[in-house]
Every structure is written in structure tokens, then in C-alpha cells.
Specification:
Elements lengths: L30 E2 L19 E2 L4 E2 L3 E3 L5 E6 L4 E6 L5 E6 L4 E8 L10 E7 L4 E9 L6 E4 L8 E3 L4 E6 L5 E6 L4 E6 L4 E7 L16 E6 L5 E6 L3 E2 L11 E9 L11 E8 L2 E7 L9 E5 L8 E3 L2 E9 L11 E9 L7 E2 L1 H4 L1 E2 L9 E2 L2 E2 L8 E6 L6 E7 L4 E7 L5 E3 L8 E3 L17 E6 L5 E6 L4 E6 L4 E7 L9 H13 L42 E4 L2 E4 L33 H6 L10 E2 L10 E2 L35 E2 L9 E2 H11 L13 H10 L3 H4 L41 E2 L30 E3 L2 E3 L18 E2 L21 H6 L1 H4 L12 H13 L11
Length: 883
């Protein structure tokens, strides 16, 4: 046997130079079991391991308290490491290298030894590497912390589990480790005592993915019951329910799979999916003006989506998520919602969706901000509910929910039966601001940006919050609900580097707020905060998880449009990444900076009711505009206190215009243009998901891809031919789709027709419109844009772009999507007509280019081989050139 790799050194005791003030650490109660090793395990169990239980249910997360409560472990995705921090002094005592992009960590004790070393294991899920790393803690005493990587654990301490392992969790008895392979649709089971692989649970072909195994389950959140008999796994994205349709509030449903487990068995057959628990749409508590007459006339609903986390408490499971409300009108407070759904009966044999009576839409608690010392707090909504933790394991208590977009912790009440409620009244709940520039404890280097995980001490007195963008950890004193310390878990990029610009872009993408430098010449009332959305309602990441997609078809002004993943925007194989795909399905944008209009008009409050003076870009004698001077990133050309006169998709380039800047904390920093940084983040930091582990059909599928002529549309470095030429004029004024009649029955908007491909997908799969895909349900969103007022009269929604409306021979079709990582980016088509690649390939119009190529894929077996190839495509796949 090879020896352990020595990777850690003895750490000196904490000194007076460390951060924070001393306080007693709170141990998590551990119970020692006296049972002997299971006779049916058949495992080579380590002699040093004892039967030790964590004493509570477990769940996956990016931050974890050590089993004895004395240390905090935090993953660092940007630096491929984990940090170990003392829970009493907040001193970082170790940084341990792991695999590429660690996203989750779990800890399991090996012995119940409070007196000294308290050995335990740390398993880290490395999403980009496709591995789990095992770190063995030889001495858990913070004064003598000692660790090493077990080289005997498969490949020098790492086990390849499958594509995109996003989450990892230990069973409470410490016997089994479970890994959610989001790109493989499997859960890996590891015998933690022998440190050997038990096997993989197939979710894709299980009852939890019925009736269509072509759907990608994308397992994400994991949780294990205290009795070690049930593992709960969330499906990350929602799919249409039976009879459902894309683009409507009640069209989809969330899902959690229950896997029955036996943690003393080494037979993978004893780890089987046993039940699928569906989560229905719920009333949001907000109303919509559906006829644009200024009156809110209808309730809105949303379905749970982006189920990153599941937390067990008592007999309930809690699921914070970014719920989707896509029915028109698309507007502030009517699209993404901050849900926490609830499942009853998690410890028993039957589970039910209890959301109708027990769940919360956190956004409701932001309507009337809490008053502190006679002063109302800033009104901020709670974008992107991502993780949560409880102060007590049962009974009436308190929970804190991470609002990843708004940089907040949201405090709520929980009853003994699992019913959630706001802390004050139906419109008010308390929040803790981790990124308040007016508070020294949460500003500059102490600001917590994009929190993604929370862990609370066993005594319920302190919370530790992992912040992704600021690369630090906030420490919150819960009896006062305030931040008392911040610890840098990994370094920020060096001044003057491209990485520094990219991390500012990450802040623009993940934040629903935004704090900016005050520009020269700004008036006293200039707004340098909360410019990225209206009252922090949502961020770019609300609809584009990690720059990818939420899988939702929204009703945008051009018509129904799925949230486009950004990973195929720029050429990943070019040293400069200069080659760029045309933006939007109707080829209406050519710069990432054009999404300034989304910041202002979708996430923001939209145009002002009345025009105000503006600066630059108009021939008016007294220039005015309805652009809001308090939102967005672009500024007036000469006067920063007035909005730019013109912001449009095409005609006037938005690239490199006058804009707000951000200066990161630290010496030697310079202001960085914020909108330009957003472009650079999109170019350099959006990672394409790894392809599924290669199947034997991939090679044959690739040959069929070439033979069928797929590369005519989907060839080249970006797996799409809708690539902008380098010499494309930035100031061109292209044609639009408007008819001469008023009001127009079709959307009138400029677009670039040369990038459109017509495969007959207009109104594809829409119920009753005679454009079905044989063998698949009609679920496509109807081709309607948002209606509006014209001359004071409300007009029904016009037909969307994608068809030649004015008979000029242009306008039919849509821009070609990239195939990079396509297997994890459903649904497919601009209106979501297909939820599986099998459905896409079953459309004869699509696979033949509407009859322009011979159909060589009429055989279902051949289409299955091509599907296997498509599922394997990532940045490492050999490119198929455009013929």
C-alpha cells in the first residue's frame, strides 16, 4: 500500500494577530453507537473508525461546521481549494488544494474523541473535475490541526464519480457518502469506512424521471434522514407537468426523488429510487395588470425552479428556490420569485407537497421594511433564495435563508409542524445586510457578495455564510442579527489583471443590487447603489444559473424566448475569444452591453412615466428621454446626472460607452468599467458543463452528425454558424418586421435577417396550431409577445418575431443555438417545444433543415446514437467544421 501524501503541516496556535474576538465554541452533540460492524457489509472497514452519528439529518452545502463545532470548512471554487477557519477566533488556519471548482463539502467523524484529536474525513465535490477528493483530518484540534490526502483513495486522493458532481453529503451515521452527478443523472455511493465505491444510482431511467427518460434529471441538492434510511435528491430544473405548457405560470412542476437506502450494505441494489414527490405552482401573493390599464386585476402564480438545496428538519423538507412566473406581462415583481417550498412526511413512507399551507414567498416580507430605532430599513427584495439553516432542530424556532442575489440573510419563523411565516407581519420580515456600504462591518473588504451557503452553530448563536463573489465568509451573531466579522477565504485577483476585471463582471452578473463608485461631477442626490434591478428584485443570474439557463420560456417583447445559455457566446478555442455568436433568438443584439436594456426594463422599473432631460444621442433642441437616471450602468455622455438619451439594441452601439465603475477593496486598485466587465465575465468565466461520460454510441453518433449535414448549421468552434463577422458595422440600422398597418399585428423591431435559419419552428409544438412533433406532447409556448397601449387603447399581444410579417422575404426563422453543453440546457427551441434531444431529433423539419438535406435519421436507433454524441459535446470535443 502506498503511504498517505503529506499535504498539511502542523499549524501554530492562534495568536493575538488573528481576526475576531474570542468566544466559546459550541459543540454539535454526537452519539456513540455500540453496534458491531454490519455482517452484510462485506467492506474492509478501517480499524480506527467507530460507530459515530452526527445526531441530526444531513444535507449538501458549500460550507460546513466540523462535527465537533470547532472549525468551519468553506469551498473556494475560484482557487480550487477549501479553507479551514476557527469557529472561535475566525482565524483561517489552513488552505487545502482539491480538484477543479469545488462546489460542496461534507464531513464525517471517524471517532468520538472530544478530549484531543477528534479525527474525521472531508469529502469535496469538484464539479469541473468530475471528482470527489478525500481529505483525512488526523488532528481536529484547532491548536494542532493536521491533515493529509489519502493517496490510497483511488487516483491519489480523488475518485472520478461522473460529469458535474455538484453536491456531496454524508449519511448521519458516517457510513456512506453520496455524490450528485448533475451532468450524469446519477448518485454515486461510497463506503466511507472502507473508502471504496459501492456504485451509482441511475436517476435518469428511474421512476423519478418517468414518463420520459430522455429528460435530464440533473440531481443537485442532497439530504439524508436521521435514521439513515432515506436520501432525498432535488431535480434542479422543472419540467412541464402532464398537460402543461411552456411560458405560463402553472405549466411546470418541481420534483424531489426519494431514494431508499441501507447504509450498512455494499450492494448498490439496496439504494433505489422509491418515490417522486412533485411540487406544484403556488400563488405568489403579487397581482398583475394583465390589460395594461393601470389596475392589478389578476393573481399571479409561480412554479418552484432551480432547486439547489434541500434541508430536513423534523418531518419536513425545505427547499429554497428561484420560482418562475413566466405568464405575461413580464415585469418587475411578476417573474422570478423567492420561494421556500415544503414537503411533509419525510421521515415516513409517504411524502406530500405541503407548500399550499406551509411555504413562503420571501418577497412578500420585503414590501414593508422593518423599522429599527424609528428608522425604516432600505426596501430590498430577496433575490435568489439558495440555502437555509435553522437555529433549533425541532419545535418552534427560527430559520435564516440565503438571498444570493441581494446579499442578504432573510429571517423567518418556523413552527413545530414546519409552517413558515414572516417575523413581523404579512408584509414584513427581518433581513441582515451582508453588503451595506454605509456599515463598516459590511463594506469594502468586509462586504459579503453573492452568499451561497450558511451553517449555524449547534447552540444557534452564530451563523457562518460563504460568499462566492467576494471570496469571504461573513460571521453573523444571531441574537443581535448583525455581522460581527468577515474572513477572506481566498484571495481576490491582483490589481491590474484581467482576473480583476472579470470578478467585477461577476459582481454585476450575480448581484441584484450593485454598489458603484460615485463619478466625478455627480450631484448630491446621485444614486450609486441598487442600480441593477428595481429594489433588488432579481439579477442576471436569476435566469442564467452560473451563466447558463433556468430552463424557463419567458414572454419577452419579441415573443416567447427561453433563457439563452451564455456559454456559447464567445469562441472558447480562440486565444482572444473574440469570435462572438449573434445574441437573442431573433438576432436583435450584437453586444453583451445591449443587455443594459434588460437591466433597466426587465429587472428594473422600466421607462419613466414622463421624459426628463438627457445627455447625448438626440437632435432635439432640448433633449429629453424616459430613461431612468437612477438605474442601469450607462451614463450621460457629458452630464452623469442625466440619463443617456438613446439606449437601443442596434444602430447606436452600447459597447464602451460612458458607464459606472467599481473599485475593489485593497491597495493599488483602479476603477473598472462595470458594463465592460460584465462582457469580459461572459467571455471568460462562463464554463460549459462537461459532457456526459462517453458512451459507446458516441463515435457512431458523430459520424451520423456529419452525414446528416448537421454541421451546416451547428459546425465550427462554437457549434453554431450564427457568428458575427469581425467587420460587422456597429452602427447599422437593419430592417424590422413591422407591417404598415397600425396597430401592428406583429412585433415591430430591428433584427439581422442574415443570421436566421428557417426550420419550420414558428409555433412548433403549440397546442392546436398544427405544427406538432409526432410522438411528443404539444408543450410549446404560443408565439405571442406582450400586449400594450397604443393611442390609449389596449391591444392584444401581437405575434412574435420569427416569421416574415411584411412580405419582404425576410424574417423567417431564428438564430442557431450553440450545442456546447446542450445536454444540460433544456428546453430546446426558442419556445421550448422540446424538453429532450430525442424530441428535437424526431422533428423531420429540424433534422433536414426544412427539407434542404436528405433525411438519414429516419431510424430511431440512429437518432439515439446521434443523441449520445450531442450529450458528449463540451469544450474538449473535437470540433466538426462547417462544410
Amino acid at each position: 500500500m502506498r503511504p498517505f501524501v503529506r499535504a498539511g503541516a502542523r499549524i501554530l496556535p492562534f495568536t493575538s494577530a488573528a481576526l475576531g474576538s474570542l468566544r466559546p465554541w459550541a459543540a454539535i452533540t454526537l452519539a456513540v453507537g455500540l453496534a458491531a460492524c454490519s455482517s452484510n457489509s462485506g467492506s474492509d472497514e478501517s480499524a480506527e473508525d467507530e460507530d459515530v452519528t452526527l445526531g441530526k439529518p444531513t444535507h449538501s452545502q458549500p460550507i460546513k461546521l466540523a462535527p465537533d463545532g470547532r472549525l468551519v470548512w468553506v469551498v473556494n471554487p475560484a482557487s480550487d481549494s477549501v479553507s479551514v477557519i476557527r469557529a472561535d477566533t475566525y482565524a483561517k488556519i489552513a488552505t487545502i488544494p482539491v480538484g477543479d471548482e469545488p462546489q460542496s463539502i461534507t464531513l464525517r467523524p471517524r471517532k468520538n474523541d472530544y478530549r484531543k484529536k477528534f479525527p474525521y474525513d472531508a469529502y469535496v465535490a469538484n464539479a469541473a473535475a468530475g471528482t470527489v477528493t478525500l481529505v483525512r483530518i488526523k488532528d481536529g484540534d484547532p491548536d494542532h490541526f493536521d491533515w493529509e490526502v489519502d493517496e490510497n483513495f483511488y487516483n491519489k486522493g480523488s475518485l472520478a464519480t461522473g460529469s458535474e458532481p455538484w453536491s456531496v453529503v454524508s449519511s448521519p451515521d458516517g457510513r456512506r457518502i453520496f455524490v450528485a452527478n448533475s451532468g450524469q443523472d446519477t448518485v454515486t455511493v461510497i463506503d466511507a469506512r472502507s473508502r471504496k465505491l459501492v456504485g451509482h444510482v441511475d436517476l435518469r431511467n428511474s421512476l423519478c424521471n418517468a414518463p420520459d427518460s430522455g429528460r435530464r434529471f440533473q440531481p443537485r441538492g442532497l439530504a439524508v434522514t436521521l435514521d439513515n434510511t432515506k436520501l432525498y435528491v432535488t431535480r434542479f430544473l422543472s419540467f412541464t407537468k402532464p398537460g402543461g405548457q411552456q411560458g405560463v405560470d402553472d405549466g411546470k412542476e418541481g420534483l424531489v426523488c426519494r431514494i431508499d437506502i441501507d447504509t450498512r450494505s455494499t450492494d448498490i441494489g439496496d439504494f433505489q429510487p422509491a418515490a417522486a414527490i412533485t411540487l406544484a405552482h403556488q400563488k405568489t401573493g403579487f397581482r398583475a395588470d394583465t390589460n395594461n390599464d393601470g389596475q392589478e386585476d389578476a393573481d399571479t402564480f409561480a412554479y418552484p425552479n432551480q432547486l439547489q438545496t434541500i434541508v430536513l428538519r423534523g418531518d419536513q423538507a425545505f427547499l429554497p428556490n428561484i420560482a418562475a412566473s413566466p405568464s405575461p406581462p413580464l415585469k418587475f415583481n411578476g417573474d422570478t420569485q423567492a420561494f421556500v417550498n415544503v414537503i411533509d412526511g419525510v421521515t415516513g413512507g409517504q411524502q406530500t407537497d405541503a407548500s399550499a399551507t406551509k411555504f413562503l414567498n420571501l418577497h412578500l416580507g420585503a414590501q414593508d421594511p422593518e423599522t429599527v430605532n424609528g428608522v425604516a430599513k432600505k426596501k430590498l427584495f430577496f433575490a435568489n433564495a439558495w440555502d437555509m439553516a435553522f437555529t433549533t432542530p425541532s419545535g418552534d424556532g427560527t430559520a435564516y435563508v440565503v438571498s444570493a442575489g441581494s446579499d442578504l440573510l432573510v429571517k423567518v419563523n418556523v413552527a413545530g409542524d414546519g409552517k413558515l411565516s414572516l417575523t413581523a407581519d404579512e408584509n414584513t420580515t427581518r433581513y441582515i445586510d451582508l453588503n451595506d456600504p454605509s456599515n463598516p462591518a459590511t463594506s469594502g473588504a468586509n462586504a459579503g457578495k453573492n452568499p451561497q451557503g450558511i451553517s449555524i452553530t449547534g447552540d444557534g448563536k452564530y451563523a457562518f455564510v460563504a460568499n462566492f463573489v467576494s471570496r469571504n465568509m461573513s460571521v453573523v451573531k444571531l441574537d443581535e442579527d448583525k455581522v460581527v466579522a468577515t474572513v477572506q477565504t481566498s484571495d481576490l485577483p491582483a490589481p491590474g489583471t484581467k482576473e480583476e476585471e472579470v470578478i467585477v463582471g461577476a459582481e454585476m452578473f450575480f448581484s441584484s443590487r450593485g454598489h458603484f463608485d460615485v463619478p466625478a461631477g455627480a450631484a448630491p442626490d446621485f444614486s450609486a447603489d441598487e442600480r441593477l434591478s428595481n429594489l433588488a428584485w432579481q439579477s442576471c443570474s436569476s435566469c442564467h444559473f452560473k451563466g447558463l439557463t433556468d430552463g424557463v420560456v419567458w414572454t419577452f417583447p419579441p415573443g416567447p424566448r427561453k433563457s439563452i445559455p451564455l456559454n456559447g457566446t464567445f469562441n472558447p478555442h480562440s486565444a482572444t475569444h473574440a469570435e462572438q455568436r449573434v445574441l437573442n433568438y431573433s438576432a436583435q443584439r450584437i453586444n453583451v452591453e445591449d443587455f443594459e436594456l434588460n437591466i433597466r426594463n426587465v429587472s428594473g422599473p422600466g421607462p419613466l412615466a414622463n421624459a426628463v432631460p438627457c445627455d447625448g444621442g438626440t437632435n432635439q433642441a432640448v433633449p429629453t428621454s424616459r430613461n431612468d437616471p437612477k438605474h442601469g450602468l450607462l451614463l450621460g455622455v457629458g452630464d452623469v446626472n442625466t440619463p443617456p438619451c438613446v439606449i437601443q439594441d442596434l444602430g447606436l452601439p452600447n459597447k464602451d460607452r460612458a458607464q459606472l465603475t467599481v473599485t475593489l477593496p485593497g491597495t493599488g486598485r483602479q476603477p473598472i468599467p462595470a458594463l465592460t466587465a460584465l462582457r469580459e465575465w461572459s467571455k471568460l468565466a462562463v464554463r460549459t458543463p462537461r459532457g456526459a461520460t462517453k458512451a459507446e454510441d458516441v463515435a457512431e453518433g458523430r459520424a451520423l452528425f456529419e452525414q446528416a449535414g448537421c454541421a451546416k448549421c451547428h459546425g465550427g468552434d462554437q457549434w453554431t454558424v450564427s457568428i458575427l463577422p469581425a467587420d460587422l458595422p456597429q452602427d447599422q440600422t437593419p430592417p424590422d418586421n413591422r407591417k404598415a398597418t397600425e396597430p401592428p399585428p406583429f412585433v415591430g423591431a430591428p433584427y439581422l435577417p442574415e443570421f436566421l435559419k428557417d426550420i419550420g419552428s414558428y409555433n412548433l409544438g403549440v397546442p392546436g396550431l398544427n405544427n406538432p412533433i409526432a410522438g411528443f406532447p404539444e408543450i410549446g409556448a404560443v408565439e405571442k409577445a406582450t400586449g400594450g397601449l397604443v393611442g390609449g387603447v389596449f391591444n392584444p399581444a401581437p405575434d412574435g418575431l420569427g416569421i416574415d410579417a411584411n412580405n419582404d422575404g425576410k424574417g423567417n426563422g431564428f438564430a442557431v443555438s450553440s450545442l456546447l453543453g446542450i445536454h444540460l440546457l433544456p428546453p430546446y427551441g426558442h419556445n421550448g417545444a422540446c424538453e429532450t434531444l430525442a424530441c428535437v431529433l424526431s422533428d423531420a423539419n429540424h433534422r433536414t433543415g426544412k427539407g434542404t438535406s436528405a433525411d438519414v435519421l429516419g431510424n430511431e436507433a440512429d437518432r439515439a446514437k446521434l443523441e449520445a454524441f450531442l450529450e458528449s459535446i463540451d469544450v474538449d470535443t473535437e470540433v466538426v467544421p462547417v462544410p
